[in-house]
Write a structure and sequence with these properties.
Elements lengths: L4 H8 L23 E11 L7 E6 L14 H14 L2 E6 L7 H4 L3 E5 L5 E3 L2 E3 L2 E2 L1 E3 L1 H15 L2 H11 L2 E3 L11 E4 L15 H8 L2 E3 L5 E3 L9 E4 L16 E2 L1
Antiparallel strand pairs: 1-2, 1-4, 1-10, 2-3, 4-7, 5-6, 8-9, 8-14, 10-13, 11-12, 12-13
Helix pairs in contact: 1-6, 4-5
Keywords: Cytoplasm, RNA-binding, tRNA-binding
GO molecular function, one term: tRNA binding
InterPro entries: NA-bd_OB-fold, tRNA-bd_dom, Tyrosine-tRNA_ligase_regulator
């Protein structure tokens, strides 16, 4: 989810998406189309022209090993690490998390990035990727609708619903390195180095099947008979992506 232009499209059609359809619907697309990578937020600031947005620099490859300096002072050690980190590849991401997660909590967080969406400009600032996050927004909206049906107070229901919305970043396994390719188990991409750009309508469909399960694990839920949901992880070990507390919630 990272509340960029693609996220607005998803929110607009969420209640009519395949996940909330009363019939069992299988996805027509494979989640292997999504380029998912591990990154680390190494710098973050408020967007100068948008109150709800952060602008983050996210490292997407391991920090180069610096050349050792004999008997370095603490200042020299810190400078060497900073220089090496600056040499690592980064992407810039705008995220609408100001109302949900403190800036200090986001700094140095390991995150999951959707890398093959079309870059966009948000209030004049380029956003090159999308952070993956879970939200209880759809559950809160459903509760507000039920409350309105009984009380007939739409305004109060909307205000209360907004206050109850929570957002949590998807946490990649700390055992995996920055830049590591992630995929839903059973859907490993045939070529992890050459992803096609994912069009907005295709992303909207695929995002309709992303959620957290009852253990907080991130899954691709096909909602199909007799088939287990695919968990987001890697082929390096059995560790999987999770969220802090939002279970059985939407991920986008």
């Amino acid at each position: 989810m990272i509340y960029n232009n693609a996220s607005r499209i998803i929110r607009a059609g969420l209640l009519n998406s395949v996940r909330f359809n009363s019939t069992i619907v299988k996805p027509s697309l494979s989640p292997a189309l999504i380029d998912l990578r591990i990154g680390k937020i190494i710098n973050i600031k408020r967007h100068e022209n948008a109150d709800k947005l952060y602008v983050s620099q996210i490292q997407i490859e391991p920090t180069p090993t610096p050349t050792p300096t004999p008997n370095p002072t603490p200042t020299e050690q810190e400078s060497t690490v900073t220089t090496a980190q600056a040499q690592a590849k980064t992407v810039q991401v705008c995220s609408g998390l100001v109302d949900f997660i403190p800036q200090s909590e986001l700094l140095n967080s390991h995150v999951v990035l959707v890398m093959n969406l079309k870059p966009s400009k948000m209030r004049g600032v380029k956003s090159e990727a999308m952070l993956l996050a879970a939200s209880n927004e759809s559950q809160v909206a459903a509760d507000a609708t039920n409350e309105t049906a009984t009380e007939g107070d739409q305004v109060n229901a909307n205000v209360n619903a907004k206050a109850q919305v929570q957002v949590e970043l998807v946490n990649p396994p700390m055992s995996l390195p920055l830049g590591q390719q992630l995929f839903f188990k059973g859907y490993k991409p045939a070529d992890c180095t050459n992803f096609k750009r994912l069009k907005s309508n295709k992303w909207v469909e695929l995002a309709g099947f992303l959620k957290t399960d009852s253990d907080g694990r991130v899954i691709f839920d096909e909602n199909s008979d007799g088939k287990s949901s695919a968990v987001l992880g890697s082929d390096l070990n059995d560790d999987v992506c999770v969220v802090k507390s939002l279970k059985n919630c939407q991920v986008r």
